[in-house]
Amino acid sequence: MKFLACIGILLASLGLCTLTAVQPPVGLLSEFWLVSAADEHGYSYWAASILHAKQENAGTRVRYFLIDGAVLPCNQPDVRAAEIFLSGKRIGDLTNEVNLCSLEATRIENAVSQSRRNPKLFESSRISITAKCGTARKSVQLPTFGIDEANFAKKIRSGKALLHLEQRLLDDLFGNIWGPTGEGNRAAMQKLGWDWSSELKRGDYDFGFWFCSGGQPTGLMTSVQPGALDITFGSDCDLQKFRKVLAAYHAPAIDLRGQHGRLAGIEGGRLLKYEDPIYSPLAVQARIEGEVSLELTVDRKTGSVMGVKPLAAHPLLEASSVNAARDWRFDPAQELKDIVVVKLQFSSPCAKKAAP
């Protein structure tokens, strides 16, 4: 190499060639992070998500976190997570038309400032995109709640794809895991979120939280700004909010679904077949609790429940109790009465919150 360099210098000195500065190649994409945050208007608490993709020898690993400042019914912070390994997949293939290593932060910042508009009602989302290219990191910040998308796309060739990159990757890689069809995986995702929360708490993703409101709302009405019950209350910056949520996160949040009433007593029979009544999500959310008394008409020969009459029950607890009782069966070998009185107890799961 030294010999070739010397030949080059010699030829240049003789005027036989021209020396030009050789630019090092742009580093290859090896890792990227998409961090977004928003103030939820339907349930006015802060929420964030993190999508992290990393190139490995045999493929690309993608991990996704969803962080909620509070979830119903108990206003607890929660972290859910999912992961997928794409065998044989190069990380650059995930971003398609968006070349993250060619992003120019200053150019994008100028395009954002020239494409500003007033936020629409309830708009509040903001994102950051960071790419590791060789030994360098490139990062851009996008206040998506106030960007005119069409104008931005005219100024940045991949502008539209950039704004929707997170959602496209979620759809392509994970499907609708966070919506109603994904609720069956909620417990598993909560466990992963809990297992991996140490990554969040040690600051691995702090660099992605850049937005500070400066006391100015985004697209939220004043009436739906997070209130004093929100643990992020009083913090203007997403990083402060993120840290407050993690400081208050001590266990996976209690879920609205999967709650049940419990058998509190029986007068006049012994059950052979019994299932707890479902504690309806609406009743759990409203924190309605108490005792339900049912009068059951029982077939003494078979032990089957022939009729159910509520004696005392809140309307939101009555239907599930009656439905459950119809499938119960008593032991016909005992001396059954025609009428059996059963008491059920519904207690709000929020009283069982794990202590810090």
Name some characteristics of this structure.
six-stranded antiparallel beta sheet; 23% helix; 356 residues; 2 domains; four-stranded antiparallel beta sheet; TolA/TonB C-terminal domain
Please specify the SSE layout and strand pairing:
Elements: H1 2-13, E1 29-39, E2 46-56, E3 59-71, E4 76-87, H2 105-113, E5 126-133, E6 136-142, H3 149-155, H4 159-163, H5 165-173, H6 186-195, H7 197-201, H8 238-247, E7 262-267, E8 271-273, H9 281-285, E9 290-298, E10 305-312, H10 315-325, E11 329-330, E12 339-346
Antiparallel strand pairs: 1-2, 1-5, 2-3, 3-4, 5-6, 7-12, 8-11, 9-10, 9-12
Describe this structure in words.
There is one protein chain. The chain has 2 domains: 29-247, no CATH class; 262-352, TonB (TolA/TonB C-terminal domain), CATH 3.30.2420.10. Mean pLDDT is 84; it is low at 1-26 and 221-228. It has helices spanning 2-13, 105-113, 149-155, 159-163, 165-173, 186-195, 197-201, 238-247, 281-285, 315-325, and strands at 29-39, 46-56, 59-71, 76-87, 126-133, 136-142, 262-267, 271-273, 290-298, 305-312, 329-330, 339-346. It has 356 residues and is of the alpha+beta class. Strands 4-3-2-1-5-6 form a 6-stranded antiparallel β-sheet. A 4-stranded antiparallel β-sheet has the order 7-12-9-10, covered by helices on one side. A two-stranded antiparallel sheet has the order 8-11.
